[in-house]
Amino acid sequence: MKLLKNPTSPFARIAHAALIEAGIEELEIQNVDPWADEAELLSANSAGRVPCLVLDDGTAITECLLIAAFAERQGKGALSASDAKSLAVAGIGIGVCDAAVQILIGRRIVSGSFADTAFDSNPIAERRRRAVADGLKRLDAKVLDAPGERLDLGTIAAVTALDYVALRFPGADWVPATPRLATLREEAADRPALAATRPPS
Ligand SMILES: N[C@@H](CCC(=O)N[C@@H](CS)C(=O)NCC(=O)O)C(=O)O
């Protein structure tokens, strides 16, 4: 099977990490640019987004949580290691990723460029920053002190959210300090699911 992804997408990272944690073998990784209307991605996913998992029979599964659910059925994956608390943490982590990505998309809508911050003065950008900051604070209060023997979806999503915000908003004064989350990230850094999917710095 083949995972269409992008190295910076937090959703693609969550899907990829869940597949690794499930022990899926023979997984081909193909990087695509979701903003370039690449034919292969558009034919697999009408939404034109990553991640998209294409099975050997051509079945295409989109949405990171559905890919995680599929991974769970194939092996012993991140979902089976997740209790209610960890699913709650995963939801917050994905909410942080979603709000952060929306700021980037807002920039692109307003000025055509992720780097142009004109959108950031829009009240919707302010709401999204608040969602990122509040979500990170909640994650910091809720995350486990140490990663479990197997990574659960909460740990994967929380670390992914922290790394994505650091990648996209380095040094931003509205990003709160998250010492417990940072410790969890450090302690889980060598786990293959997180190490092999870390975004480029
Ligand atoms: N809800 C989706 C979100 C996927 C998503 O938004 N992916 C972004 C990359 S971070 C994308 O491909 N964007 C391209 C676009 O919006 O056209 C999931 O959970 O997988």
From TrEMBL:
Gene3D superfamilies: 1.20.1050.10, Glutaredoxin. InterPro entries: Glutathione_S-Trfase_N, Thioredoxin-like_sf. Coiled coil: none annotated. SUPFAM superfamilies: Thioredoxin-like (SSF52833). It holds the Pfam family GST_N_2. It comes from the Bacteria. Residues 1-79 form the GST N-terminal domain. This is Glutathione S-transferase N-terminal domain-containing protein. It comes from Aurantimonas marianensis.
